[in-house]
Amino acid sequence: MKGLLVLILFMLCIMASAQTYGDEGPTLTPNAFGLVYEDAIGENVPGKVNLHRVTYQVDGIDVVANVYTPAGYDAAKKYAAVVVAHPNGGSKDQVAGLYAQKLAEAGFVTIAFDARYQGESGGMPRRTDKPANRMSDIMGAVDFIQNYPGVDPERIGAFGICGGGGYTFATAQVDKRIKAVGTLSLFNTGDVRRYGYMRTQMGNIMERQREASLARQKEAAGAEPELAGFMNWTPEEARQIKVDLYRDGYFYYGVTHKSPNAPGTYLKSSLMDMMAWDATDHADLIDQPLLIIAGEIADSRYMSEEAFAKASRTADKELFIVPGATHIRTYFVKEYVDQISAKIQGFYMEKL
């Protein structure tokens, strides 16, 4: 009888949350705002955190973003703000939106945006993913949010996740309007595209550069752009992958938190730019307060540790390790999300 009661309660919870459960956790359906994360805002209610869809331009290209305002928001007051950058292949509607909402719950005005050439933002050819563009996207978000009603332009922070973490880390080296810098599961796109994930492709760098160059040559001749990124694995194949970033990433992006704005692929020709870039090349230019967060058992942890070590100019820095977490599971597992949310809320409250 006790077991039956537990089962009934479990089923009621599923129906109440309007979620279906797959092999790797809850599979979410985009809500009225297109958000695909747990406990996402479904409607704007007076007196609570609200979401405002905005469009602005960066270098003449439209950017679509969500601005989150805190409960009781009053444009006549002054608020600190945080720019949140999404992972490679991701969108504003997934983990970037989740942490933007969590920060808004703590009283910040936040903005989560789709990178240009991706998601709902403009730019052609689609799925272009170049480091210079991604850094300009973050600067453009700062441009926009510093002029948002109620925002204090002297109290702006930045928070980046995965690839967005690497790009945020790099942008903070040059944009001193960013007064506090945070990253989660930092992914150094240049290092990985150049040397391979966990430095497993050191022996064929030039070969892969030639492949990227050939892809651009074909594009310039009018061919359909060639894509790279997540493979078309089956769930069974994905479960056999030993690397947690790719195994968990398959289920997060392709199953449980799937969004039409986040296909998980990029133009192969973009590798020309990626392979010649590194998030940590000028890490010693970071003099702002810095918080780097990584999962304890994430196989990407080495990138957070290296970035932290290279940020030698700032004495105000912390490497926060989330016990038991892998890279992707810092995006959605409640136990980890709660710890990370508390940490970043406290960080930006103190530093901004």
- CATH class category: Alpha Beta
Order of helices and strands: HEEEEEHEHEHEHHEHHEHEHEH
Number of helices: 11
Radius of gyration: 20 Å
Q: In one word, what is the shape?
A: globular
Write the CATH homologous superfamily.
Alpha/Beta hydrolase fold, catalytic domain
**Which structural category do the helix and sheet elements fall into?**
alpha/beta
Q: Can you tell me the CATH architecture?
A: 3-Layer(aba) Sandwich
Strand content: 15-25%
Describe the overall structure.
There is one protein chain. The protein has 352 residues and is α/β, with parallel strands linked by helices. The protein has a single domain, classed as Rossmann fold, CATH 3.40.50.1820. 47% of the residues are buried. The protein is built from 11 helices and 12 strands. It has helices at 2-17, 95-105, 131-146, 163-171, 189-195, 205-220, 235-239, 244-256, 271-274, 301-310, 334-351, and strands spanning 20-22, 25-27, 50-58, 61-69, 79-85, 109-113, 151-161, 178-184, 227-229, 265-267, 290-295, 317-322. Mean pLDDT is 92; it is low at 1-22. The chain starts with a helix and ends with a helix. The longest helix is centred in the last third of the chain and has 18 residues, at 334-351. A hairpin with a 2-residue loop joins strand 1 and strand 2 (25-27). The strands form 3 sheets. It has an 8-stranded mixed β-sheet, with helices on both faces. 36% of the residues lie in helices and 20% in strands. Helix 3 packs across helix 4.
